[in-house]
Amino acid sequence: MANEKQLNRDLIIGWAVIVMVLFIAYLGEVLKGERSIVYVLVFMAATGLPALLCWLTYQKNPLNHNLRYLIVAGYFIMYLFVMVSGNTMLVFTYILPLLSLLILYHQPKLILVTGLVTFVINLVQIAVRFMDKEIMLENSRDVEIQIALLALCFGGSFIASRLYDDIYTKNEEYVRLLDEKSRQIQRMTLQTIETIANTIDAKDEYTKGHSKRVSEYSAKLAEYLGMEEEEVLQIRYVALLHDIGKIGVPDSVLNKPGKLTDAEYELMKTHTLIGGEILKDIGMLPDLDVGAKFHHERYDGKGYPNGLKGQEIPLTARIICIADSYDAMTSNRVYRRHLSREVVLKEIRRCRGTQFDPDVTDAFLRYLEKESPWEYREEEGEQEMLANVSGRLLQKIVHSQSRQAAREAEQDELTMVYNRTAAERKIQANMQENCGSLFLVDLDNMRRVNQRYGFRRGDYYLQTVAKLLKEFAENIIVSRFSGDEFLCFMPDVTDREVIRGKMDDFVEKVHRYKETDELLSSLSISIGITIYEKGKQELQQLLVEADKAMYHVKQEEKDGYYFYRMDEDAQEYISKVDLSNLIQAIRRKDSFSNETVLAHKEFFRVYDFILDVVSGSGRNIQLILFTAKLADENSMSVEEREDVMRIIECAIIDTLKDENAVTKYSSVQRIVMMMGEETENLSEVTNAIVKDFYRMYDKKDVELCYDIARLGGDSQENVMES
Questions:
Q1: Of 12, 128, 206, 474, which shows the fewest CB atoms inside 10 Å?
Q2: Residues 194, 240: contact at Cβ < 8 Å?
């Protein structure tokens, strides 16, 4: 213990001081002619050498338990030398320091043995002096005092030491219990912090184990920076909670597969402030909020949230910053695979002095080169940490619960396939490595089925189709994309003939199910297929293409499939597809966040009203989409195009006498919303609008077309007309 180390040192220093004082005193007696130089040399050999030996032993191991016995033995040699060679009364000048030394060590047995030996030596000396006639009965008073003092000093010291030893033993036991309780609290603290870290990481499967790895890297880096053991442990704890603020970030932003918008990025950046607020008042560990709040600060002052620079950033945050960045570069993400060792080292060196503290960077590079954490395995690291903290049983429980929670978070409860968020994430990851084919499967007339047979029949339809889709191909990703739509992706399958064969088998299997199961008699599906070429399309583009192909099936015959193709034959469906996308969004009650339906921002002001009408009021609603088809888009200026759209809007308002009924849908489209049964004969209305447009615009380079959809009320399905 530190107290024993300090006590050993102080006793040796005190002993050395006494030796030097006596040496100076004896040297003075030599100069006076009272002692010879030989006596002084023998004294130094008898007293100085044991002291030097004890000092060397202390230097080798300050906590050596046997050092106390060496000190006592050396001190006793000095005591014996003075007693044999000097005046008897001089001996008593050593009794108090000797007994003080023994009492400090609270060793009753040592005091007893030392006292008995001292007592025997003094009796032998007294006997010798008595035989030499130096002591007689007449002058025995000093001898009697000598024996009484020895008995009194050593006896009293023995009793006092026994009493003190009992107190010390009990106190030592109490301290041991406190230390054990402290270690238990530490283990519970780490367990609690790790549980919180697991909860944070569980929000995104691609950051699983991130907090633990950052904690491990940060602790190692602290060691390489020469920090004390307690500081290293504290940094380990702080790093475990560095991302706790992500609890306050919406999952739609945290798990978004694609690039974040500026607004979403600003929302993501708030996790540092949220984390700091959560941890700022927790006194369990000092500066627990530092890592969470400042780990995105940059050494050059360009970080967030406060733009701190250089040494203004707490050292703990500078350590976590580079550990966090390293784990991000060496881990797989939904938008890319992990970077190679060479690229990571190059990036760390490049950011030295800008993003990262130069000294911290140098220490981290030494750690990477010496210990090679490139081969670090998450499961092995997790096992080692949990085994040291909470045992293997807790580890199994945590793993089991984490896996179960992850599965539940990814699955659609009704169909047991992936939900939309999980599917988009997995498809994005597959698109990084593989080409493939993507298709949307829509269950036709589901609204009519639910109205006629009830929602339980509709659920049965969905469960049956989900089961058949999971059997479609070995590695297929199947998800419930909306209320009555499924999204599927087949990695590495791009050959149209292969896909066509599988689709034919699938459609035939659906028909067999309909024939053998009376409950499925009304089941009908429309499938839109598009081919993904690696690196050439984004997921959102594929969704639009598959949606257009699926709409083609619905327009033609339903209950079949169609491949997307962007040629002249497909162009005629574009305006219909735009209106079809809008209808699908209304049926899904889409928020437009996924960009599957692209509409002008002015349209959003009436969109919520349309949703309310369709889902709640039971009233009919008609949507008319007017599209201006330009003969040559390149030859028409922006001003001329805007003039065309203004004339279309004027024609609509002049006919309907209601400026609230029309809104912009795109740069070349206006959409009209009409309600009530009185608008059943829409052809008269639309013809009047078209005639009014051509009356005001007499050029031949624009063709005004329109598409109509009926929703809500008594409509059994969405009816599309041109």
A1: 474
A2: yes
The reply to whether 130 and 222 lie within a common domain is: no
Q: How far apart are CA 675 and CA 624, in angstroms?
A: 11
- CA atoms in the 13 A half-sphere facing the CB of 426: 20
pTM tops 0.70: no
Overall average pLDDT of the 491-495 stretch? 91
Residues 231 and 368 occupy one common structural domain: yes
Give the contacts of 663 (CB within 8 A, at least 6 positions apart): 600, 602, 603, 605, 606, 670, 671, 673
Indicate whether 624 belongs to any domain. Answer: yes
In 3D, which of 415, 420, 548 has the Cα closest to residue 488? Answer: 420
Regarding whether 527 and 654 lie in a shared domain, the answer is no
**β strands within 533-668, DSSP E:** 560-563, 620-630, 662-666
| Residues forming beta bridges with residue 675, ordered by sequence position | 621
Residues 626 and 504 in one domain: no
Domain harbouring 268, CATH code: 1.10.3210.10
* Cα separation of the two ends of the chain: 91
Q: 549 in a domain, yes or no?
A: yes
- Say which DSSP state 338 is in: P
Please provide residue 486's backbone torsions phi and psi, each rounded to the nearest 5 degrees: -120, 145
In a domain, 448, yes or no: yes
Inter-CA distances, 126 with 90, 144, 286, Å: 15, 10, 66
Residues near 93 by beta carbon (within 8 Å), at least 6 away in sequence? none
Q: How confident is the model at residue 316 (pLDDT cuts 50, 70, 90)?
A: very high
Burial of 488 (0-12, 13-18, 19+ CB in 10 A): buried
CB atoms within 10 A of CB 108: 19
Rounded to whole angstroms, how far apart are CA atoms 676 and 678? 6
Residue 527 pairs in a beta bridge with 441, 561
Residue 90 lies in a domain: yes
